[in-house]
Amino acid sequence: MAEWLLADVGASNTRVALATPAGVLRETAQTLRNDGFADLAPLLAAYLDTWGARPTALCAGVAGPVRNGTAQLTNLDWFIDSATLARATGASEVHLINDLQAQAWALDDLAAETLTPLIPGIPAPDGPRMVMGLGTGSNIAVAHRMGARLFVPPAEAGHSSLPHLDETTNALITALAAEIPHKPYEALLSGPGLSRLYRLRTGHSLPPPQIVAAHAAGDADATATLEVFAKIMGTVTGNMALTHMTTGGVFLIGGAARMVASHLLSLGFAEHFTAKGPYTPILRAMPLTLITDDHAALSGCARYLRQHLK
């Protein structure tokens, strides 16, 4: 019998599943459109009614900062409150964590076939591991091993500022500042960010999949845009990896990450990722891996509950 309710709450969709201490019950996993509900509580209540389930505990990974048992989603006007979720679901324990934290909590439970190596590297067995999400927005989370347990602190890195780069890229970042003054890196490193970067360069709008397809077909504007994207992504990812000394490896996840992953190395990502002066050898040893499991955050929520409910 299911004991736990798990949720991965994004800007557009929420993935939901039931679980036991043994893991996620994959046959219960569903993806629900957020625009069909006023907020998360009625969405979860409707899901539970479908299964006739009444969980004892709930863990939700949410796309926004969590403070004092509440969360405001960054890219959706939903305010989430633990007490409201407890009433809606009947769960006696409700845990809210950031969605990237949930992804990092899953790292030890991912199937080998959901991991695609991009750069091999030499991982330190007990080194910190970083997950970088590229989707509607962007963020990171770092998983630290503490014996048999994990420690995964929250972050809201996507709203940290873009770095200083070459003259051409800096001009694009200056143009971005006219639209978003604090110049967060997710404004360019995300699905919408890739479209914004293309518009800032060319004056025309194009959805991310069409930009990637145009690059594959040899379009010069699309290729130039993706080269800038890879330069910024390599620099930012390298900065984060060095800041946290993620010698256990760097993992990419999210729709935008999957879209560009196969092109990153040919676009120059690795050169910018490792360009850290005397610390270049440290970056070169960090493996880079793509996660393709759409339910990774649910697995992470289950791992979180296993550790915290003991």
Please, could you describe this protein's structure?
By secondary structure, the chain is an alpha/beta fold. It has 2 domains: 4-105 and 295-308, ATPase, nucleotide binding domain (Nucleotidyltransferase, domain 5, 2-Layer Sandwich); 112-291, Hexokinase, domain 1. It is 37% helix and 23% strand. The protein is built from 11 helices and 15 strands. Strands 1, 2, 3, 4, 5 and 9 form a 6-stranded mixed beta sheet that branches. A 6-stranded mixed beta sheet has the order 10-15-14-11-12-13, sandwiched between helices. Strands 6-7-8 form a 3-stranded antiparallel beta sheet. Helix 1 packs parallel to helix 2, helix 3 crosses helix 11 and helix 5 crosses helix 7. It is globular. The chain starts with a strand and ends with a helix. The mean pLDDT is 96.
Give the arrangement of secondary structure elements.
Layout: E1 4-9, E2 13-20, E3 23-24, E4 30-33, H1 40-51, E5 57-62, E6 66-67, E7 70-72, E8 79-81, H2 82-89, E9 93-98, H3 99-105, E10 115-119, E11 129-134, E12 138-146, E13 149-151, H4 167-177, H5 191-202, H6 208-216, H7 220-244, E14 249-253, H8 255-260, H9 269-274, H10 280-284, E15 288-291, H11 296-308
Parallel strand pairs: 1-5, 5-9, 11-14, 14-15
Antiparallel strand pairs: 1-2, 2-3, 2-4, 6-7, 7-8, 10-15, 11-12, 12-13
Helix pairs in contact: 1-2, 3-11, 5-7, 6-7
Keywords: Kinase, Transferase
InterPro entries: ATPase_NBD (IPR043129), Bacterial_glucokinase (IPR050201), Glucokinase (IPR003836)
GO molecular function, one term: D-glucose binding
